[in-house]
Automatic annotation (TrEMBL):
This is Alpha/beta hydrolase. Pfam families: Abhydrolase_6 (PF12697). The keyword Nuclease does not apply. Keywords: Hydrolase. It comes from Actinacidiphila acidipaludis.
C-alpha cells in the first residue's frame, strides 16, 4: 500500500510526518513556506490516519515511509516528525542513515519502549475507558485538552478535534493487528538532529527530547517555554522560521 500523500515544489526534499492525534493536514501552516524555500515537500498520512486506511496485517510505519520515498524517487531528505511521527522519523534515520540528511523532531515519541509517566498512563487509561464506554466524542475532547498547548486558539483546537475524530473512525472500525517488531539501533541515526520539547507537554516527551543528545552522535535539544505538544500548530509562524533555519543549517538553528 502507498500512503496517501502530497508532494510539491522543487529542490532538496523535506518529509513531514504527523503526530498521533493529527494527520498530514497539521502541516498546512508550513506547506507554502517550505515549497517557496526551494524544497520538494512530501507529507503523508500514516496508516490509520487521514486518507490512509488502517493496517490489515502486521506492518511498520518506517517501512511505509521508505516505500513512499522509493515510489517518489526521493533518495535523501530532511525528515521532520511531530510526536508519533517523530518516533517514525527516528526509526527511518536509524535504519537508513544515508537517506536522512537532517532530523527535526517536535515533541517526539520514542521508537523504543519506555516506561510511561503516571500522568501519561492516566491519560491513556481515561481514553480507554471513554472508548470502551462508547463515548468517542469524550475521548476526542480528552485528546484535544491533553495535547493542545496554551498558546493555541479555538481554530487549532477544532483542527485537532477533526483530525483525531477521523483517526478514531478509521482505527476503531478496523480489526486489531499486532505491531511488526523491528530491531534497530537508534544510535545509528547519524544525521544532524534538533530535538524540540515543549515546557507545557507531558514529562515523557520532554524527557525523550532531553536525552537524545546522549543517544545520537549529532543531536541538540531545545525546549520552547511556551509550547505544549504541538508547537507547529500552536505558534506556526515561529516554528516555520525554525524549520527554515534548520533546512539552511541544521547545526545552527535554534
Amino acid at each position: 500500500m502507498t500512503l496517501s500523500h502530497d508532494v510539491a515544489g522543487d529542490g532538496p526534499a523535506v518529509v513531514l510526518l504527523h503526530s498521533g492525534v493529527c494527520d498530514r493536514r497539521m502541516w498546512d501552516p508550513q506547506w507554502a513556506a517550505l515549497t517557496a524555500a526551494g524544497r520538494t515537500v512530501v507529507r503523508c498520512d500514516l496508516r490509520g490516519f487521514g486518507e490512509s486506511p488502517a493496517a490489515d496485517k502486521p506492518c511498520d510505519d518506517a517501512d511505509d515511509v521508505r516505500d513512499l520515498l522509493d515510489t517518489l524517487g526521493v533518495e535523501r531528505a530532511v525528515v521532520v516528525g511531530s510526536s508519533f511521527g517523530g518516533a517514525v522519523a527516528l526509526e527511518v534515520a536509524a535504519r537508513w542513515p544515508d537517506r536522512v540528511t537532517g532530523l527535526l523532531l517536535l515533541c517526539a515519541a520514542s521508537p523504543v519502549r519506555q516506561e510511561k509517566s503516571p500522568e501519561f498512563r492516566a491519560v491513556l487509561d481515561r481514553e480507554d475507558a471513554l472508548i470502551e464506554g462508547g463515548d468517542v466524542a469524550g475521548a476526542v475532547e480528552l485528546m484535544v485538552d491533553t495535547w493542545v498547548g496554551p498558546e493555541a486558539g479555538d481554530t487549532v483546537r477544532e483542527a485537532v478535534r477533526v483530525m483525531q475524530r477521523r483517526a478514531y473512525e478509521l482505527q476503531l472500525a478496523a480489526a486489531e493487528v499486532p505491531s511488526l517488531e523491528v530491531d534497530f539501533d537508534i544510535a545509528a541515526a547519524k544525521a544532524p538532529c534538533l530535538a524540540v520539547s515543549g515546557a507545557h507537554d507531558l514529562p515523557d516527551f520532554r524527557r525523550i527530547a532531553a536525552r537524545l543528545p546522549d543517544l545520537l552522535p549529532d543531536a541538540r535539544h531545545v525546549e520552547l517555554p511556551w509550547a505544549g505538544h504541538l508547537p507547529s500548530m500552536e505558534r506556526p509562524a515561529e516554528v516555520t522560521r525554525m524549520m527554515l533555519d534548520f533546512l539552511r543549517d541544521p547545526r545552527a538553528a535554534v
